[in-house]
């Protein structure tokens, strides 16, 4: 959690086979997000989490996100993910938030400029194989938010400080 600077560090590649400790961490990340979406959960609801958010510098994240554009809910746990394709511009209408950024931190308001469509590849912990997946809209935004955590980048780094709610040319507002 900010102001702890560890969230700004770059995470390291995960080695295989996965150790017991790593599997434990993965299961905890999945539980954390799934529980946060349950009715009556006392805390911030999350749609994704990277290992660094629990204090571990491992290149992996979990996503459990609803759809925009009529896609079903998507759950995936990616290890050593890489974004291999990005297309078109997009931002969420009301900006973004993060489980690791407290509400007292200034400068969080504004459009977070990202891509509308991304293709990501990596090892799926849920499917136990290398996968490549293409996502658009809200789920693509979540992928980019989590992928940024692996490199110490936070969502408000992508807000234009001088024109916080100004849409870019050809940017889709979701
Ligand atoms: Zn975050």
Number of helices: 2
The CATH topology, please?
Peptide Deformylase
| Average pLDDT number | 95
| CATH architecture assignment | Alpha-Beta Complex
The overall strand count is 6
Specify the helix fraction band: 10-25%
Main sheet record: 6 strands, mixed
Q: Structural class from helices and strands?
A: alpha+beta
CATH class: Alpha Beta
What would the principal axes of the Cα set say about the shape? globular
Number of domains: 1
**CATH fourth-tier homologous superfamily:** Peptide deformylase
Description:
With 174 residues, the chain is of the alpha+beta class. It has one domain (5-173): Alpha-Beta Complex (Peptide Deformylase). 17% of the residues lie in helices and 28% in strands. Strands 1, 2, 3, 4, 5 and 6 form a six-stranded mixed β-sheet that branches. A hairpin with a 4-residue loop joins strand 4 (114-124) and strand 5. The radius of gyration is 16 Å and the shape is globular. The two termini are 27 Å apart. 32% of the residues are buried. It binds zinc ion. Zinc ion binds next to helix 2.
